[in-house]
Fold:
Amino acid sequence: MSPMAPPTDLTILEVCPRDGLQNERIPLTVDQRIDLIQRLADAGARRIEAVSFVNPKAVPQMAGAEEVMAGISRHPGVSYSGLVLNARGNERALASGVDEVNVVVPSTDGMSRANQNIDVAGMLTLARQMIAEAKAAGVTVAATAAVAFGCPFDGEVSVDQVRAVVRVFAECGVDEIAIADTIGVGVPAQVRALTAMVRQEAPGTPVRFHFHNTRNTGYANAAAALEEGVRVLDASAGGFGGCPFSPAATGNIGTEDLDYLAVRSGYRTGLDREAISETATWVGGLLERTPPAMVGRAGVFPPVPSTERGAA
Structure:
């Protein structure tokens, strides 16, 4: 799409409070995480992955998920989601009052056993139950096929491996299907192939992608997804993020960088890019490191009047 084309809405699902923090050396307090979520909502984020209902012994950075959800001052029109990996996590999420649950199923046995202590077939059986419980509770259900582009344990991942996971999601009638490049190995050709597969298996179900920029292909993948008509993408303020099984990970694609790419290409996001960058700098101070994202350092081009940020 050229910069002169009519604007098209792009939803950026903000994952900094979850994926952005889960692998950091310095865990943020519950109050700091609540503050982060508040800042992101103030900056225009309308979908925020606020928490992860994992075992805090395994991921101490995500401890206190219920306290975070209880402490949020909810903005009208903002959806606050929680990631779940198992039945106990799903139970906790529904009790906490999340607006969405994100049920994650790895596409490979290696990752599924390492991350969730069960193979893919067993995880899909659990996912059916978790999705049904969430739907019965009236909660929006997104389902994510993790390591869809490559696995740190099993190597290459075929489209058909991801298809087997997506097919179950479609049978369960989830509200959205997400495809995750969990360790940042994907390229645009895979984005196109996986988008076509999801649309074949789940026609009419919205598709979302989750990209990491570990090998500097995250933004090329995002552009490819946009060209394929995908209108929801995950990103993390500052580009923070990483998978515990990808020790060299550089982070998620940055919200402010994706926003710059999208807005300059004619899309409308509704985000205040400057406020996102300021939030990323603030988070970086708490984490004692520089945000990986680039726009916060370089600035936008050309300078955007404050009344037009996120809508140019």
Summary: The first helix runs from residue 30 to 42. Residues 8-308 form a domain with the TIM Barrel fold (CATH 3.20.20.70). Confidence is low (pLDDT under 50) at residues 1-5.
